[in-house]
Amino acid sequence: MRKWNAVVSGGIMLLLLVHMVAGALQTAGLLGGGQKWLKVVAWVMLALVLVHMIIGIKLTIDTLRTVRESGVSYTKENRLFWLRRISGFAVMAFVVCHVVIFLGKTQNGVFRLHLFAGAELATQLLLVVSIAVHVLSNISPLLIGLGAKRLQKLLPDLLLILALLLLAAGIGFVLYFIRWNTL
Description:
mainly alpha, single chain, two-stranded antiparallel ribbon, 5 helices
């Protein structure tokens, strides 16, 4: 099950990269809102996220069952485990906000939301932060699960790319907020 989770996570990461770049371009006004492939990417990624969430919940339940049966929890030593689980649940909460907020409409080739005020911007920036925490805490096990042999060489490059894309996503949200509230 962990191998499947690694494969699903890899798929999510690839689709997330495409979604972040296209979304940042779209919210900044550099890409029109009528591309149907963007919705397909988003919905496929959401389906993979739900599969990832179900697998994560199952693995968490298995771990908690083992802890209960053994009677030893090693709470202090398992902080990274809990960081991964809590950040995953934070991502899910903010993904729900993201989906609700971005169920806008395309009018004359321009993507329009119903509202994008301060609270919406805050939830989207928290989504970016929670994704960063979740990915950063899970990147090493993901690469190991996918069989990456040169983990030490790949990790800094992957983290740099991720940091740049997350920065672009955050800037895209801020630019969209500014455009929404000034136009």
